[in-house]
Amino acid sequence: MVWFFKKKRPGAALEQLAATGLWDFHNHVLHGVDDGARDLEQSVAMVERLGALGYRQLAVSPHFDAQRAQPSVETQRPIIEQIEAALGREFAGPRLRTGAEVIFDDTLVEGWEDGVFPCIGDARDTYLVEFAFGSGRVPRRFEDAAFRMRVKGATLVLAHPERVADFQSDPGLVRVARSAGMLFQLDVMALVGRYGGKARRLAYSLLEKGEYHFACSDIHRPHDLDTLEQALSALADWDMDVACRLVSHSPRDLIEGTFVSEE
Length: 263
Ligand SMILES: [Fe+2]
Fold this sequence. Notes:
binds fe (ii) ion, TIM Barrel, 6-stranded parallel sheet, single chain, 9 strands, alpha/beta, 10 helices, about 260 residues
């Protein structure tokens, strides 16, 4: 008897992943609020393409910097309504919710105590935070601030640790951040080298160690979508169960306010 071993069809893993329904809480699809979508046309193009990829809901995450831009929930709502109106009633793709990507600097605790940061979707007291990327930019003793916020009931999700130079040069910071209760979000495009070799290597290393809780797109422009598709495919090929957890189930639970960390 002759056995034929068929190679898996390219894209089959991505189709399987998409069928589970993808959710995202780190993206810059709102136009005119940061370095993301420039105008309504770009916002619509990005949301339509995300829908075609299998995304069901998006909590948006415009950059929030206490020193500069502060896109409040009230600022975001009319922009979301404008995008949804342009997409039309028949649009079956993702719905949009509010959120923010907050810079983790020395003013973080102060701003949080003032209640100015938008939460991720419906996740009460849960915030997406990022460190500045450059070398030496992670605040000293950041874990003290993170721990204080945690004790007072805040959950911090750290955006793309793999892209932060200080984390690339000092892997010990991973333990420090995790010990302070921070959850980790992979920038999925790091897997295909979008942010260089160091970010790609650290991303796979953290994936291997099971350090990530979520994987999000962090898309800024329509042309990011081709890279995002390749990246989701790479993640699905790497491990389908992990991909489903990071891109589908866990971000869904987080956005809906029901996520419970298994740790
Ligand atoms: Fe971002």
